[in-house]
């Protein structure tokens, strides 16, 4: 990689440090994976017309044609900014295209473990295994996100068969704690979904499915029952007619929940 005649510190510091702090505490900051948008370098839409504005921002002459050479120069700019900002701050700053408006922008990889990717509806819809037919994940008026019917569903309908791996509760918790540290913002998207089984056991699924977005209610329209055909599988069945657009609910208390489940702050709304 060639060294280009600009200094990232002169262009972006110290305001980038403040902008990163503001973005990390702003619930409306645009995410890109686990990065947060700080500043627009060149507006969208993403096409070759942006190139002159990008090169001008970094004090570089605009190539005469939008060739492979121009794209290589753009990649050199991106790599130099990343390397210099990492050396100056110890944090990751990157240049990338916005998936929302196509702008070329500076992004910051937030290291605050409290920032949770599962709070983003776009992320949830794109990265959740869908195994309950005629439903979709959307914002709930009850608790975070919920699962909603996309058409009328009659009483006694089998919506899904729930399977997984069987763990003792204590073994599952030890494994979850051991592996969750390195998952960052994704820690609540894996090791999150299970059903209680007799004998202080769990039927756990490693990847999150739409089942985990069914909220709790004391007047549910769904129930989980043991499969009559297969060992260690459960069936999700409707208990009454459900209208198109209606949210789906389970009574969490109907399961044989593990010891200590009601001790956490998360579970207080079940009481």
Short structural description:
With 271 residues, the protein is α+β, with helices and mostly antiparallel strands.
Structure description:
The protein is of the alpha+beta class and 271 residues long. It has 2 domains: 8-114, no CATH class; 118-270, SET domain (Beta-clip-like, Beta Complex), CATH 2.170.270.10. The chain is built from 6 helices and 14 strands. It has helices at 8-12, 15-24, 51-57, 68-89, 121-127, 169-180, and strands at residues 31-32, 35-42, 93-97, 104-109, 135-139, 145-149, 158-162, 165-168, 190-197, 201-207, 215-216, 222-226, 234-238, 249-250. The strands form 5 sheets. The protein has a 4-stranded antiparallel sheet with strand order 1-2-4-3. Strands 7-13-12 form a 3-stranded antiparallel sheet, with no helix packed on it. A 3-stranded antiparallel sheet has the order 8-10-9, covered by helices on one side. The N and C termini lie far apart (60 Å).
């Amino acid at each position: 990689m060639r060294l280009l005649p600009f200094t990232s510190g002169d262009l972006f510091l110290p305001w980038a440090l403040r902008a990163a702090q503001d973005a990390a505490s702003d619930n409306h900051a645009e995410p890109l994976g686990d990065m947060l948008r700080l500043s627009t370098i060149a507006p969208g839409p993403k096409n070759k017309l942006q190139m002159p504005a990008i090169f001008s921002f970094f004090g570089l002459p605009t190539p005469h044609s939008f060739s492979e050479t121009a794209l290589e120069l753009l990649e050199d700019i991106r790599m130099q900014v990343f390397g210099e900002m990492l050396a100056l701050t110890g944090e990751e700053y990157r240049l990338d295209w916005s998936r929302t408006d196509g702008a070329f922008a500076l992004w910051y990889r937030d290291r605050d473990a409290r920032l949770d990717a599962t709070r983003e509806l776009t992320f949830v819809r794109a990265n959740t295994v869908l195994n309950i037919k005629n439903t979709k994940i959307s914002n709930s008026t009850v608790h975070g996100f919920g699962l909603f019917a996309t058409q009328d569903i009659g009483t006694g309908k089998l919506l899904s068969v729930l399977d997984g791996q069987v763990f003792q509760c204590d073994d599952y918790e030890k494994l979850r704690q051991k592996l969750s540290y390195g998952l960052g913002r994704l820690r609540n998207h894996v090791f999150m979904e299970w059903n209680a089984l007799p004998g202080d056991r769990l039927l756990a699924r490693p990847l999150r499915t739409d089942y985990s977005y069914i909220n709790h209610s004391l007047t549910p329209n769904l129930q989980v029952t043991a499969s009559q055909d297969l060992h260690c599988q459960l069936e999700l069945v409707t208990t009454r007619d459900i209208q198109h657009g209606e949210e789906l609910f389970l009574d969490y208390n109907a399961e044989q929940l593990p010891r200590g489940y009601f001790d956490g702050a998360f579970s207080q709304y079940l009481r």
